Amino acid sequence: MSKHSLPKRRLLFVILAVGIPSIALVGLGIGLILQESQLAESRRTEAMEESLDLFASTLLETADLLRDDAAATVGLSTWSANTSEYDPAIVLIAGLVQDELKLPWQLNGSTERFNQRIHSGQFGRILLRAERLEFASGTASQAVAAYRTVVSAAQDTLQRTFALLSLARSLEKAGQDEEADAIRLDVLKTPTNYSDDFGVPLSLYAAQQLVQIQRHLETVSDVLIDQAQFPLYFSPQAAYLYRAIQDSLRTFSENTANPDQTRKLDEIEAYSQFTLLSIRLQEDFRTVYPRLISQTGEYGFTLHANDEWLLSISRDTSATEAYLVAIDVKKIVQQTMRNPEMAGSGYVAQVLSSRSLPPNKWLGPHFQGIYAPLIPTPIDSEKQPITSRITFIMLAMSIVIGLTILGFYLWWRDTRRELETAKLRSDFVSSVSHELKTPLTSIRMFAETLRFRGPPEEIRDDYLDTIINESSRLTRLLNNVLDFSQIDKDSKIYHFQPVALEQIITAALDTMEYPLRAENFEVEITMPDASVQVNGDPDALEQIVLNLLTNAMKFSIERPKIEVGLKKNAVSAEFWVKDSGIGIEENDLEHIFTDYYRAENAIESNAPGTGLGLSLVQHAVKAHNGTITVKSTPGLGSTFSVVLPLL
Fold first, then answer.
1. Which of 207, 196, 194 is nearest to 168 (CA)?
2. Which CATH number is 606's domain given?
3. What distances in angstroms separate CA 597 from CA 113, 217, 586, 615, one per listed residue?
4. Predicted pLDDT at 4
5. Domain-located, residue 184
6. What spatial distance separates the first Cα and last Cα of the chain, rounded to whole Å?
7. Domain for residue 540, yes or no?
8. What pLDDT does 13 receive?
9. Taking the complete model, does pTM exceed 0.90, yes or no?
10. Nearest one of 168, 163, 192, 195 to 179, comparing CA atoms
11. Among 20, 101, 217, 480, which is 20 to 30 Å from 174 by CA?
12. CB under 8 Å to 341, separation ≥6 — which residues?
């Protein structure tokens, strides 16, 4: 069979099994679809209109509930920017004072509270004296002492936080950076509702100072995220300072290439957007307000902030205070779609839009300029004629049977591959078990002999050499298994440094000296006079040589001769290990570097091995930007050559 016949047969099989039945199915289906197209279109239009009406009424009910509940929990006299008690879908609650929009930071009284607590009374007088010492008449150390007195005089968190910021500033001037940083880190954790007369949280000043001196930047990012209660109601000054801190942190993050830091900064930037969107809403309110009056004359809903916010106005029960409530569009749509009444309504896309282009449809008089896209759904096949359904199902079943047979074939092929892989792994486990058992048995036998029989001195040394050799053999085997495990997990790490290759080869030969001598091997060594330097991992390079020497020994018992050589080329170094063993068949050469693979003649010769040695050698050589080649003649031996770039 030619090499092109199998793909052609597979293609023919796919055509016969799937193509022809599918074409027949399409032909019959087109006929049925044409017959019922008008009826289906009528049913679809009716269902879409019903779905849109249901979505609009459910959305209105959900939005009304959110708006009224939010407005009922606040009052302009007790305004708070803390939204933890509100539904997560609510992103902003602003006051309406004489038809002007007042944002939260304009209503929380932070300016009056700050001036009263900081610049008046005994605390204000002590603070003023400390500031004069810092900026006018005193030394840095005098200012530090004065600010410590201010900290002691603080009676609440606002006073203490402001005093600590001033103390940190004077400590830095006095050269006491470590204590100054500790104080700033303490202030950094202060809740954001402790702010100055500009509505800027005092913790942001601590963050700004730490960013300016480029210390504790990771901590600054973490704390800013922790304090970023969704949503953030900052004053404009605070928002701009927040953005400046974020920009500085992002510059540092780009310079250090820290992806985790970049992710945190993206979160911080997302939080700071709420204030900027609120400011833009305040600026656009005169054009937004008319859209909030529905066609019924009541307060309705409209979109803002690139269709991300759903706006409406609510008044409390006394009708003396009015509020503008902004709701997150994505979250309220999700709440609407979770309503049990929406089950089975698959025509309305889960987004809102201010664009009236198709397929968008208007949601009704309560939603000024708000549209929802409609998505067509399949034809209801339950109303098709019974005979057509039977024909359609029979044809569909034919396709299913054909695809099932094809799937079974693919499954059988994959299963066969898995079984082959499992067999290789089973053989590997058996080989490793045998390889572990042999040196352990030798070590135990000679150790027990040394302990109980007390042989003569010259025999005792020979026993000890055997124990050491078997231990080294066991260590090499375990190193191979561990290296393979790390490579399999892609976690193998090489430690590169300048290395003299002749020293690596000599060390490997020293390690193998006893087993080579014990098996009466003749080793011929060819080394250059000058040192051959490469950039490599000493342990990995030595393991390459040890694995090649071990293979040469295992397959050269009949003719115990090995040649080891090293030479220096123009831009590379080359070393080789040549044996006079059984050699490798040509059809095995392309597989010998594959995991678990063992050549047929190696298995027949009962030579021990796990099938990992050459795989590990190739991986290590590639990691050193080198190449490995093999030349072999069955019955005469093999030569493995490794070429590495010079240092």
1. 207
2. 3.30.565.10
3. 80, 52, 15, 9
4. 45
5. yes
6. 51
7. yes
8. 54
9. no
10. 168
11. 217
12. 54, 58
Residue 498, pLDDT score: 93
Residue 114 to residue 91: CA distance in whole angstroms: 26
110: containing domain: 105-232
C-alpha neighbours within 13 Å on the C-beta side of residue 315: 10
Residue (of 286, 325, 305) closest to 95 by Cα position: 325
What distance in Å separates the CA atoms of residue 501 and residue 510, rounded to the nearest whole number? 14
Q: Which string of DSSP letters, residue by residue, matches 265-319? A: HHHHHHHHHHHHHHHHHHHTHHHHGGGGB-TTSSB-BEEETTTTEEEEEEE-TTS
What are the C-alpha distances in Å from 360 to residues 46, 48, 303, 305?
Answer: 16, 12, 15, 19
Examine the fold and report which residue of 179, 209, 232 is the final residue of a domain before the chain moves on: 232
As given in the structure block, the two tokens for residue 444 are 């135990």
Tell me the per-residue pLDDT of 561-607, one tens digit each, with 9 for 90 and over: 999 999 999 999 999 999 998 888 888 888 888 877 777 656 555 56
When divided into structural domains, the chain yields a total of 2
pLDDT, one tens digit per residue, over 505-527 is 998 888 788 788 888 999 999 99
Q: Name 62's bridge partners.
A: none
DSSP 411-457: HHHHHHHHHHHHHHHHHHHHHHHHHHHHHHHHHHHHHHHHHHT---H
Q: How far is CA 29 from each of CA 384, 591, 641, rounded to the nearest angstrom?
A: 12, 52, 66
- Residue 238 class from Cβ within 10 Å (0-12 exposed, 13-18 middle, 19+ buried)? buried
Check which CATH number belongs to the domain holding 120 and give it.
Answer: 1.25.40
Out of 171, 203, 232, pick the residue that ends a domain. 232
User: Which position has the higher pLDDT, 624 or 404?
Assistant: 624
Confidence of residue 627 (pLDDT cuts 50, 70, 90): very high
Taking 90 as the threshold, does the pLDDT of residue 628 lie above it? Answer: yes
* Both tokens assigned to 253: 């993050």
pLDDT range class, residue 105, cuts 50, 70, 90: confident
Distance, CA of 479 to chain centre: 31
Residue 509 lies in a domain: yes
Is the residue at 74 inside a domain?
A: no
Q: How crowded is residue 398: how many other Cβ atoms within 10 Å of its Cβ?
A: 14
Identify the helix (H) or strand (E) that includes residue 324: strand 322-328
